[in-house]
Each structure stands twice: as structure tokens, then as C-alpha cells.
Design brief:
The chain has about 170 residues and is of the alpha+beta class. Helix 1 runs antiparallel to helix 2, helix 1 packs parallel to helix 5 and helix 2 packs antiparallel against helix 5. The protein starts with a helix and ends with a helix. It has a single domain (about 5-169), classed as GAF domain (Beta-Lactamase, 2-Layer Sandwich). Helix content is about 40%, strand content about 20%. A five-stranded antiparallel beta sheet has the order 2-1-5-4-3, with helices on both faces. It has helices spanning about 5-25, 25-40, 80-90, 95-105, 145-169, and strands at about 45-55, 60-65, 90-95, 115-125, 130-135. The protein contains five helices and five strands, in the order ααββαβαββα.
Length: about 170
């Protein structure tokens, strides 16, 4: 895709995702639409959505497309990158050197299989982070860039209100 085509393609993906999210009748439906439309602009071979359950202190994974092994049980993930994004409310791009810096500072710790690059975005509704969407790549440290994080964040912002409404329904 040439550079001039990129903004038009992203706009089409945002519009299509917004329309699909509005039409979705279930959380699973909106998550499948998110996976499909996100895959038009980013590599979604290892994508998950982790929803925070405040009562149990664990994350549930209603969407887990992961080449490194799926997580099916609710999992605490204390100190993980996922937990860091939820606690800080900030989207982050992390490669191995950045992960090492975060770990040395005590902000995160290794949880699960290590990847070469990871991007995560908070899912917000009513001024509260209720989950995290993340993409990771286990072999290619250049699979995602900081620019990809902005794209992912935009699409996460489209997903979050519909997903939260369907979860509350």
C-alpha cells in the first residue's frame, strides 16, 4: 500500500468497524468485527482482549488469537504489560529493550511467553479502564511500530464503547 492510500484505508477501516460495532448484538460479535477490521491494517496473528474483573482481580479473555498459546482461564496477570496498561491508562509500544527497562524499574515483570514486540491499548468507558487490547509478535521485533500503536489505539477507542455496552446488557 502506498503512503497516499494509507489514510483513506484507515478511515475506511474505522468507518467499517464503527458500523459493525453499532450493529453487533453480542460482545462476541463486536470482538469478531474488531479482529476482522483490525486485520485489514495490522497483523492480528497474536491479538487478545483482556477484560478486568475487579472482584476477582483477574482478567478474562473473550478474544484470544495467539500463536503463543491461548489463555482460557481467568488470570491475575499482576505486573504484566497488560496490567501496566490498565493501571496507567496509557497505550504503550514495547520492544525487548523497552521491556527490560520497565522490568528493571519494577513497573512490569515477565509473564507468559516473551515476545519481540508488544503494543497494548486501554479500553475505556465512563472514564474507567475496563480492559486492554494487545497485539504481540514472537519473532519479528519490527512487526509493530509506534505509528501502529496510534492506529491500534484509534481502533480500540472505536471498539470500547460498544463492547462495554454489550457487556453491561
Amino acid at each position: 500500500m502506498s503512503y497516499p492510500d494509507k489514510p483513506a484505508r484507515l478511515l475506511a477501516v474505522v468507518e467499517d468497524l464503527a458500523a459493525a460495532a453499532t450493529r453487533a448484538r453480542s460482545a462476541d460479535g463486536v470482538l469478531q468485527a474488531f479482529h476482522h477490521h483490525l486485520g485489514r491494517v495490522l497483523d492480528t496473528n497474536s491479538l487478545y482482549v483482556a477484560l478486568w474483573d475487579e472482584e476477582s482481580g483477574a482478567y478474562n479473555f473473550p478474544l484470544d488469537v495467539d500463536a503463543g498459546g491461548a489463555i482460557v482461564e481467568p488470570t491475575p496477570l499482576d505486573g504484566s504489560l497488560t496490567d501496566y496498561v490498565r493501571r496507567t491508562g496509557r497505550a504503550i509500544w514495547v520492544d525487548r529493550p523497552e521491556f527490560d527497562l520497565l522490568a528493571q524499574s519494577g513497573k512490569v515483570r515477565p509473564v507468559g511467553k516473551m515476545c519481540e514486540v508488544w503494543i497494548g491499548v486501554p479500553l475505556r468507558a465512563r472514564d474507567r479502564v475496563f480492559g486492554v487490547a494487545a497485539l504481540q509478535h514472537y519473532t519479528d521485533p519490527f512487526a509493530f511500530s509506534p505509528a501502529d500503536l496510534r492506529t491500534f489505539s484509534l481502533l480500540g477507542d472505536v471498539l470500547a464503547p460498544s463492547l462495554h455496552a454489550l457487556l453491561d446488557a
